[in-house]
């Protein structure tokens, strides 16, 4: 067997983006599966609503990539959608921004360490993985909510 680890990455940045965008598409379908009222008002065990989880994901994705590409870590955005339609529009806008900003990440930036939002010091690749993991975690909570409402969620494995 030949050792190719020095010359071949496990995953390319384009592959990672495709993986993340697959997760984003699935999370969007989970958000869309909620009835309007329950999206903003339903929770279990005093946890946040699915719209609250979606807003957290929106508050992390583009701001993180802005920080990665510019070195400036923006403050949280104040505008919070109050309808499912507006939330899905914000989700779609952020998804397009992720593609735009991703193309601006210099290859060497992935291995650099930065302090995101003044509090999380880690390599850029780890920060991006954290943002993706956070979305997957909250989407899982959305699955529990949907099932408890008697709504069949989208298949978790369908990230096309």
Q: What is the element layout, followed by pairings?
A:
Blueprint (H helix, E strand, L loop, with lengths): L12 H21 L2 H6 L8 H21 L13 H19 L10 E4 L3 E4 H25 L12
Antiparallel strand pairs: 1-2
Helix pairs in contact: 1-4, 1-5, 3-4, 3-5
Kindly describe this structure:
The chain is globular. A hairpin with a 3-residue loop joins strand 1 (113-116) and strand 2 (120-123). It starts with 12 loop residues before the first helix and ends in a 12-residue tail after the last helix. The mean pLDDT is 93. 21% of the residues are buried. The protein has a two-stranded antiparallel ribbon. It has one domain (13-148): Four Helix Bundle (Hemerythrin (Met), subunit A) (Up-down Bundle), CATH 1.20.120.450. It has helices at 13-33, 36-41, 50-70, 84-102, 124-148; strands at 113-116, 120-123. The protein is mainly alpha-helical and 160 residues long.
Short description:
The chain has helices at residues 13-33, 36-41, 50-70, 84-102, 124-148, and strands at 113-116, 120-123. It has 160 residues and is mainly α. The chain has a two-stranded antiparallel ribbon with strand order 1-2.
Rounded to the nearest angstrom, the distance between the terminal CA atoms is: 34 Å
Rg, nearest Å: 17 Å
* Averaged pLDDT: 93
The number of distinct helices, counting runs of at least 4 residues, comes to 5
- Major sheet summary line: 2 strands, antiparallel
CATH topology: Four Helix Bundle (Hemerythrin (Met), subunit A)
Strand content: 5-15%
Q: CATH superfamily name? A: dinb family like domain
What's the helical proportion of residues?
55-70%
CATH class: Mainly Alpha
Approximate shape? globular
Regions with little confidence, pLDDT below 50 for 5+ residues: none
Q: How many structural domains in the coordinates?
A: 1
What pattern of helices and strands is seen along the backbone? HHHHEEH
DSSP strand count: 2
């Amino acid at each position: 067997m030949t050792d190719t680890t020095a010359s071949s990455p496990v995953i390319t940045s384009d592959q990672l983006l495709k993986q993340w965008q697959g997760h984003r598409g699935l999370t969007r379908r989970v958000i869309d599966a909620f009835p309007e009222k329950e999206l903003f008002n339903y929770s279990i065990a005093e946890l946040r609503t699915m719209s609250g989880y979606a807003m957290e994901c929106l508050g992390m994705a583009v701001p993180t990539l802005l920080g990665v590409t510019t070195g400036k870590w923006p403050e949280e955005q104040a505008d919070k959608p109050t309808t499912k339609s507006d939330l899905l529009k914000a989700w779609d806008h952020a998804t397009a921004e992720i593609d735009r900003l991703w193309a601006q990440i210099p290859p060497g930036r992935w291995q650099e360490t930065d302090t995101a939002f003044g509090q999380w010091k880690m390599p850029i690749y780890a920060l991006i993985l954290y943002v993706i993991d956070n979305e997957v975690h909250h989407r899982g909570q959305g699955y529990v909510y949907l099932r408890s409402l008697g709504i069949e969620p989208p298949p978790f494995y369908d990230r096309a």
